[in-house]
Amino acid sequence: MGRSVASGVGERVAERGSNACVPTCRTRKPRPGANVTTSGPNTAQNVTGGEINYLGNAANGSQSTGIVPYLLTALGTGGITHILDQGDTRVNEATLRNIHLKPYKDAIDAGVGTIMPSYSSWNGTKCSASKCLLTDVLKGELGFNGFVISDYNAIDQITDNYQEAIAQSINAGMDMVMVPEKYAMYFHDLKQLVEDGDVPITRIDDAVTRILRVKFAMGLISDQPLPPTDPQIRQSLGSDEHRAIARDAVRKSLVLLKNERATLPLSKSLKHIHVAGPVADDIGRQCGGWTINWQGAGGATVPGTTILAGIRAAVSPTTKITCTADGSGGEGADAVILVVGETPYAEGDGDTRQLTLPEDNLKAAENVKRLSVPTVLVVVSGRPVLINGLLDQSDACLAAWLPGSEGQGIADVIFGDYHPTGHLSFTWPKSVGQLPLHAKGDSKPLFDFGYGLTYGE
To answer: For the chain, which end, N or C, has fewer CB atoms within 10 Å of the first or last residue's CB respectively?
Structure first.
């Protein structure tokens, strides 16, 4: 599944004329909004490297039009002590190596082309200014031959003196710097630093060599002009084939958390199903952040199938489907599908101390509870959220994560066309007071890392 998804992503990136794609990062705490880009806290898993390997040559299977994957965030980001965005990982070097280092070794071995250090710090030193992390560990010990690129305006956070910030970052091992606005000042200051001997010319030569090495490997340095975007790739954008891959990814990633009295799968021939909740017919909330714009948005942001539309397509022609965002109007229903979830977010705006769902979800749950009929809870979120009360009033529960544009993948599981196979890549807490929970064996979570039911269990 991972290879199919990454190949599809690579083709869509290439269709836009881009040559690079961010696969994932690793985090061990659910409160930061950056969790929307992670696949879990288990830094021992060889997942990151696998994802990168899939992306490396996804477009047409051709190196000349391939996508160079870059790994987002420097090691240790997932262990920040500050509970929200851009914090400080306060651990000794042995802990950093034992817990956080392995995914980066896997990624480098798989051929990652670039690495982007995080805004965060390690023991008070910004990752973008850490020679230990960027040069000694990544380039030296791990043998990374690609180039290191800064995050958006990241070097501005190193120190108030901009020229000194440039010197610290470049000397630490930063090869390319993302400077969206004051690039003229950056160019002037870096040139001056080299002329004054504060940045060795050997460091500039190394950075240029690394950047050119990646470009040569991608086929971007050639006597021949780059070919135009392949029209066949453009034609595949949003194709049935790609949507089928996305739908398969949805159903395979769902995790069945509860299924009392074999409530699921529901029969497609029930007389009346009431679909409730603010996320049931909202494709923007299905997709979450980093969709069309940075923080995402609710509503019809992209073409696709909402969860409600997927349910309507799955049931028999004689089944009555009603739907309200607030949960009202379900009288006489044989079953309720309650779809709750977060509002879209990315890093920054998605930071939260509480992990609670928005109020509109709770109001819908109150109205559904009055119906006293079998209830299937579907949780749409970019991380584990607090669902204790909702779980207690439901007969079955599916963690749907952020299913994106293909809501019919959820209906496939609800109605039994596909049996759930997913397992939690996070330990799911009962309360924020338990955090951080990292893996199976932590004290009394709501669900352990790796938990997941299937039909018949």
So the answer is: C
Is 351 a residue of the active site?
A: no
pTM of the entire predicted model: 0.82
- The last residue of one of the domains, among 167, 184, 218, is 218
Domains in the chain: how many in total?
Answer: 2
| 251 & 154 share domain | no
Joined together, the tokens standing for residue 382 give 């970019």
Told to judge if 11 belongs to the known catalytic residues of this protein, a careful annotator would answer no
Same domain, 374 and 412: yes
Domain ranges, residue 312: 240-434
- pLDDT tens digits, 253-302: 999 999 999 999 999 999 999 999 999 999 999 999 888 898 899 999 99
286 close to 405: Cβ distance less than 8 angstroms: yes
Name the 3-class secondary structure at 377.
strand
Report helix, strand or coil for 336.
strand
Alpha helices in 68-200 (DSSP H): 93-95, 102-109, 131, 162-172, 183-195
How many whole angstroms separate alpha carbon 192 and alpha carbon 2?
46
Residues 180 and 251 in one domain: no
What strand order describes the sheet that includes 255-259? 255-259, 396-401, 375-380, 335-341, 272-276, 320-324
DSSP 410-437: HHHHHTTSS------SSPBPSSGGG---
Structure letter (DSSP) for residue 25: B
- For residue 200, say if its preceding peptide bond is cis, omega within 30 degrees of 0: no
Alpha helices by DSSP H, listed for 66-128, are 93-95, 102-109
Alpha helix (H) residue ranges in 219-270: 231-236, 240-253
Q: Does residue 408 share a domain with residue 269? A: yes
Same-domain check for residues 282 and 151: no
For residue 134, what is the domain's CATH number?
3.20.20.300
Alpha carbon of 172 to those of 39, 100, 214: distances in Å?
Answer: 29, 20, 20
d(CA 269, CA 266): 9
Cα–Cα distance for residue pair 120/100, rounded to 1 Å: 14
- Give the distance from CA 28 to its chain's centroid: 13
Q: Which of 11, 85, 151, 281 is catalytic?
A: 151
pLDDT digits (tens, 9 = 90+) for 56-73: 433 333 333 345 555 655
Catalytic site residue from 11, 15, 347, 395? 347
50 & 198 share domain: yes
